[in-house]
Each structure stands twice: as structure tokens, then as C-alpha cells.
Design a protein that fits this description.
Number of strands of chain B: 10
Order of helices and strands of chain B: HHHHHEHEEEEHEHHEEHHHEE
Strand order of the largest sheet of chain B: 2-3-4-5-1-6
Oligomer: heterodimer
Distance between the termini of chain B: 52 Å
Number of strands of chain A: 3
CATH architecture of chain A: 3-Layer(aba) Sandwich
Order of helices and strands of chain A: EHEHEHH
Largest interface: A-B, 10 and 9 residues
Largest sheet of chain B: 6 strands, antiparallel
CATH topology of chain A: Rossmann fold
CATH class of chain A: Alpha Beta
Largest sheet of chain A: 3 strands, parallel
Distance between the termini of chain A: 33 Å
Structural class of chain B: alpha+beta
Helix content of chain A: 25-40%
Number of helices of chain B: 12
Number of helices of chain A: 4
Strand order of the largest sheet of chain A: 1-2-3
CATH superfamily of chain A: P-loop containing nucleotide triphosphate hydrolases
Structural class of chain A: alpha/beta
Radius of gyration of chain B: 26 Å
Strand content of chain A: 5-15%
Chain lengths: ~130, ~350
């Protein structure tokens, strides 16, 4: 499901399946994008932050057009205990690889990978990022 | 043939893209078809231009003919220049019959009476368009063929498109000559400028697709983003909002292509409004500020802002009023009244 912001429109509540993973996309070229994500985070139930939320930062290929501070993004990941992924949507290879990563995460969050829970995977990703 | 004329023709030919040279020379009609056959148009432009000059030498070209070639070039490639739009006003209501010969005579006479050293050429095109090329000199020097102004006047309208080029000091004189020759009363500059002459014409002649107020409700099932939603597994949560944005956008911008402008400039002479605690400006004076928007195609980019999620729909009327108001340079002053706001000066 694609949405421009949270909360989701209530008229579609009955049509929505269970949500296993929320990926917040931040366009590094747009401060508005970061503000929008920060505002939307307030509408997420706390239980999601146990491994079912991730931040996807796009547009990282164009260094000249960065509007968002990297510190702000790291801080966001820290505060909400969620992993931060980076990608460049304009390059097909990276796009496909990122999609595969997200899909893998989704499988774990939905409980389809035996022995690995969303929480354990989330903490695994965080500890490797801290290195 | 004069050396300066030869050099001028050579440089004009060099400006033309190689594949277009033959067609343009044929349009010019100064060299005969047999003469054109003798030129190899596949060699490098440097050599083509030399051949052309050679043939012009044989035909004894003078500056008048060379100027015609320049007009033809600028008519086909008007976007290399920046054009400003002017509007003339008449006091009386009567529409006089436009006499081209009379216009040309009066124009030349008025201009020459003030400045003897000018080269003036006319060429008529479809749509009642008269193209005027003026090369400016000074009271003491011959006209500089490289310092030219162009005027496009549509005789059935009060609009004149001027590309003044370098010498802006001659602009008042040029305007005067136009007013006298066309039997109007005065002329004013509309704050509208662009590289695209056709787009300027579209705006003032209202030839672009405008937003018409329709009073029947549009069906909510309208879908015009079919290619994007080809995969049915992707569900757009905010579909109704997206559709609202498309609808509002369409109402504001219309369906067709937008006229091509490169800039919009807003000169602000408004009071700086800040948190009283910040106390940034002690004096209550207007905060002078210039906001300039630039784009290869400004109106199309404004049209795509809301659908791309970069701005809220509807956009500020200061941006969307550009084609209707036929201007892209604005002065915004403080509204004098009980409530603060701002209005666009006429």
C-alpha cells in the first residue's frame, strides 16, 4: 500500500489487510519529505517500532542536491530504534536490490521466516550499523 | 561588394545549422537555383560560407539583401533572442484601415529624423505579422549590423514584440516611431518576457488552453493515470486526494500545453513579518526582496508540482495568474487597509 502521509484515510480501514512493515521514504533532496515523515511518525502505534518500521532514504546518488542533513536521519533512526536503508531509485540495479532487501525484511516481519522475529532482526541490523 | 557586407553574410551563414543552410538560402532567393547547385552543402560550414560569399560577390549583394537573410534566420530561430511584449493604446474608438506602405514610410521617417545612421528592413509574414530589423549606429558612426533590434508587429492587434538586444538606450526612440507609424497614442511595456516568441503570442492572443469554469460536476471515477497503476497489487491509499489534485490542477492550468516562459520574478516591497519576540527589524520599513523562479519551462514545471507531491494544490494565485495576467514580472506591495495582506500592482 502506498500512502503520501499518515494517518491513513479511515474510509478504507475495512479494506486494509494487517500491516507487517512500514517503510518511511525520505527524499534526501526534499526537506519537506523529512518533515512529512516526522509528522507521520506520530501516528504510528508504538508496537510497530519493535522491528516493523524502517527508513528508506532515496536520492542519495545526487550529492549536489542534498537538502536533508545526514545527522537528522541518523538521529531519526536512533530515536525510533529502526534501521535506515539508503538507495537511489533512478538506477535499476540499486532499485531491484533495495526491493529485494525490503521483501526479505517483510518476510521476517510477517513471520514467514522461522526462527527469526522482527525484533531480533531489527536489533541485528542496528548493531551492525553502529560498527 | 563591401567587405563588411561580405563578412556579415559569412557570419550569418555560419550561425545556420548545416542541414538548414540550403533551405534558408532558397527562402532568401538572392542566389539563383543554378548558383545554389554549385555549392557542396556537405562540406564543413566554414567552406560553405566562403562559397556563399563568393556567389554573393558575383551578384553584388548589398547590406539590404544581407539584412533580409538575417531576418529570415531570426524568423526561423526566434528563440535565440529575448522578447518583451509592448501594448499600444489608442484614444479614439475608430479602427483605421492598416496601410502597410504608409506604416513603413512613417516608421522610417520618424526613426531617421532622430538618428540618420540606421539600417531599417521590413518583411511581412502570415498572420499580418510585420518583422522590422533595425541596425543601430550613432550620429557619428555607421550602423553596426551586429547590434540589431527586432520588432514583430501584428497589425490587427495593439501588440508589439520587441527584442531590443544590446542598445537599450534606443528603445524610447523605437517605441516612439512605432506609435507614430501605427497611428496609436502611446505604448507601454507589459511586464512579460521570454525567449519563446510563439509562447508570448499565445499568451497575449489567448491561444493557449485556458481553464474554463465548468458548472457540471466531474465524475469521481475519472482516471487518467492508467499507465502508473498497471500493477493491481499496488494500492494507493490516497487515491481520492490524488484525484482531487489532478482535478484542481486541470481547472487551473487547463488540458493543453502551457506557453513557454523561463522566468517569473516577484519584487517584494512588503513588511517583514516575524515573531514579535525576534525583533528582527526595528524600523517599520518595507523589506525589499526579489524572488525569481527559473526553469526551462516554468509553467509546465508549476503544473507538475502538485501531482509530484512537492506543493499543495491549489498553488498560489501569484504563480497561476501568469498567463491570464499576461505578465511574469510582478511588484508586490503592502495592501493598505485594516488587515494586512498583499496585492499585485497593476
Amino acid at each position: 500500500h502506498l500512502a503520501t502521509s499518515l494517518p491513513l484515510p479511515s474510509e478504507r480501514d475495512h479494506l486494509r489487510p494487517r500491516i507487517d512493515l512500514i517503510a518511511f521514504m525520505i527524499d534526501i533532496k526534499s526537506k519537506y519529505s523529512l518533515k512529512n515523515v516526522e509528522a507521520s511518525l506520530a501516528h504510528v502505534d508504538a508496537s510497530f517500532f519493535l522491528g516493523k518500521v524502517c527508513f528508506l532514504v532515496t536520492g542519495v546518488g545526487r550529492v549536489n542536491y542534498c537538502s536533508v542533513e545526514m545527522n537528522a536521519i541518523w538521529k531519526l533512526g536512533e530515536v525510533y530504534c529502526s534501521p535506515v536503508l539508503f538507495c537511489e531509485l533512478e538506477l535499476e540495479g540499486i532499485r531491484v536490490a533495495t526491493a529485494q532487501r525490503l521483501l526479505r525484511m517483510l518476510q521476517i516481519c510477517a513471520g514467514h521466516v522461522p526462527g527469526v522475529s522482527a525484533l531480533s532482526f531489527g536489533s541485528l541490523m542496528r548493531s551492525s550499523a553502529d560498527d | 561588394m563591401d567587405e563588411t557586407v561580405a563578412e556579415y553574410i559569412r557570419r550569418t551563414v555560419l550561425k545556420i545549422p548545416r542541414d538548414e543552410i540550403k533551405t534558408m538560402l532558397q527562402k532568401w532567393g538572392f542566389l539563383s537555383e543554378t548558383q545554389l547547385q554549385t555549392i557542396n552543402f556537405h562540406q564543413i560550414k566554414e567552406n560553405i560560407s566562403q562559397d556563399v560569399v563568393q556567389l554573393c560577390e558575383e551578384n553584388s549583394a548589398d547590406i539590404k539583401q544581407a539584412a533580409v537573410l538575417d531576418i529570415i534566420y531570426n524568423h526561423i530561430y526566434p528563440n535565440k533572442r529575448v522578447w518583451s511584449v509592448y501594448q499600444m493604446n489608442k484614444t479614439g474608438e475608430e479602427t483605421e484601415f492598416f496601410d502597410l506602405t504608409d506604416f513603413k514610410k512613417k516608421f522610417k521617417r520618424r526613426l531617421r529624423s532622430a538618428l540618420k545612421n540606421v539600417t531599417i528592413n521590413f518583411r511581412e509574414y502570415e498572420d499580418n505579422a510585420v518583422w522590422i530589423r533595425i541596425a543601430w549606429g550613432t550620429p557619428y558612426t555607421k550602423p553596426n549590423q551586429y547590434k540589431t533590434s527586432y520588432v514583430v508587429y501584428h497589425s490587427q492587434t495593439p501588440y508589439v514584440f520587441i527584442s531590443a538586444s544590446v542598445l537599450k538606450s534606443n528603445l524610447p526612440l523605437l517605441c516612439q516611431a512605432l506609435v507614430v507609424a501605427s497611428s496609436y497614442h502611446d505604448i507601454r511595456e507589459m511586464e512579460l518576457r521570454s525567449h519563446s516568441l510563439n509562447s508570448l503570442k499565445d499568451i497575449v492572443f489567448k491561444r493557449y488552453s485556458q481553464n474554463f469554469q465548468t458548472y457540471y460536476p466531474r465524475p469521481l471515477q475519472e482516471r487518467n493515470v492508467a499507465p502508473e497503476n498497471a500493477d493491481l497489487r499496488i494500492i494507493q491509499e490516497n487515491r481520492s486526494e490524488k484525484e482531487r489534485i489532478q482535478r484542481v490542477n486541470r481547472e487551473v492550468f487547463g488540458d493543453g500545453p502551457q506557453p513557454k516562459l523561463e522566468f517569473a520574478q516577484y519584487k517584494l516591497e512588503t513588511m517583514f513579518k516575524s515573531d514579535p519576540k525576534m525583533d528582527v527589524l526595528d524600523k517599520k520599513e518595507p523589506f525589499r526582496c526579489l524572488v525569481k523562479f527559473s526553469s526551462p519551462h516554468l509553467l509546465e514545471s508549476l503544473k507538475s508540482l502538485a501531482p509530484a507531491g512537492m506543493a499543495d494544490a491549489p498553488l498560489s494565485p501569484l504563480l497561476t495568474c501568469i498567463p491570464q495576467k499576461a505578465r511574469n514580472y510582478f511588484k508586490i506591495r503592502e495592501k493598505k487597509g485594516f488587515f494586512s495582506g498583499s496585492f499585485v500592482s497593476p
